[in-house]
Design a protein that fits this description.
Elements (H helix, E strand, L loop, with lengths): L11 E4 L2 H4 L5 H20 L5 E4 L2 H11 L4
Parallel strand pairs: 1-2
Length: 72
Amino acid sequence: MATADGAAVLPLFIIDPWFYTWADVGTARVRFLFESLSNLDYNLRKLGSQLYLFEGNSRDIVQEKNDRFPTN
């Protein structure tokens, strides 16, 4: 995938471990989240891309991906 000006895009979603311990997160909310992510991945695949899912500390993962796929 790319932006209008041709810059590469890495579609990703990060699930931070605190999400599962948050008092307002119940089974229905988790199911809705994963169904929505699955639908997004399905639509991205129709466009020749995909959604990458990661679990962990958001800042660490973004930094790691930024280091691995630097922008110009």
